Amino acid sequence: MNVSRYISQKIEGSDSGSFTSSVTKIAIISIALGLAVMLVSFAILEGFRNEIQAKIFSFGAHLTVSKYDNNNSLEVEPINGAELTRDLRRYPQIKSSQPFARKTAIIKTRDEVLGVVLKGIDEENGPSPMRQNLVTGKFLTFPDTAAAEQVLLSRKMADKLRLKVGDDALFYFIQNPPRVRKFVVAGIYQTGLDEFDEVYVIGDIRQVRELNTWADSLVGGYEVVLKDFRQLDPVSDNLYNSLRYDLKLDKITDQYAQLFDWLQLLNRNVIIFLVLIIFVATFNMVATIFIMILERTNMIGILKAIGATDNQIRRMFFFRGFNLTVKGMLWGNLVGLGFCAVQYFFHPIPLDPENYYMDRVPIFWDPRIILLLNAAVFTTSQLAVLIPTYLIARIKPVVAIKFD
């Protein structure tokens, strides 16, 4: 029988109603609240990151290949799509690539005028990620024989122009000679990101080709999606070195640097928050074990007098701290994961899309983060238990027995 564990269990049963009982409850609550807050914080942070990245990637993908242009114009010179597609297929890290072309235009209705960029896409290589942003209407239909006369407007544009699904809209293209096209609003999208919602209208890439008198093989560029976004830098370096001299490669983290810098700032804030919470929980555990030792000084002296070693007594308090940690972690997981589940399935906490880019607090489930947070709390709490137990070696049996 493990004597240290046995005595620890007896101490736990005799603590009821004592000052130590109140302190141990505070220790359990601090561990539970600390773990719960960390679980919720990381779930929300990862939710924000994934939601915003998904919205960005639906427009710009991870990498963009286009013709080199000193003017940095939204309208780029055409490139041969067939040649570039063959080059991209040599990279196993690339998941997919979609051609695009852009054309600036002015939308005119009876009462309003708005400058926009028509972004032409196709779905030859798979469904467009823009489908996930559609909020009303239907996505573009791509006929086999002619360019689609449909467009997708953002909700902001539709509100400004007072257009709805099924309405006609006149697009004026400033070129030589100027051209006018009438498009039907097939659907309305919303990302919550002003960088997209205030600028882009989505249409058929063949409309842009016709306006620019391009051949069917020409495109404005390719949007490349990687299998693993974390490999963005090494893949972009390798791809850049293999491209022709007249092509350029843009990373999504450079194109929308402000958004990614904001996500990095959130990361740093949460890490600081994590360190502070762990410190508070650790301090509470140290204080709790100190109080236990002080209240049991007389008992420690008696145990030493009958032959118990310092390590045996130290293990006794270690088991006590272990039990407190496990109880706190069980309650922390129950509260933290329970809150996340309620928000994930029922969305009781809304957000203002104008400020937060989404209409509710997002939750992302990552088993690795949950396990790491539990492991961090458990490890630091157990290390905190060891700190005050070294006080036991300084307790003298003769003095301790007289201690009251």
UniProtKB/TrEMBL annotation:
GO terms for cellular component: plasma membrane protein complex. The keyword Transmembrane applies. Its main location: membrane. Keywords: Cell membrane, Membrane, Transmembrane, Transmembrane helix. One of its GO terms (biological process) is lipoprotein localization to outer membrane. It is found in: Cell membrane. The keyword Membrane applies. Residues 26-236 form the MacB-like periplasmic core domain. The chain crosses the membrane at residues 26-45, 270-294, 330-349, 369-393. This is ABC transporter permease. It comes from Hymenobacter oligotrophus.
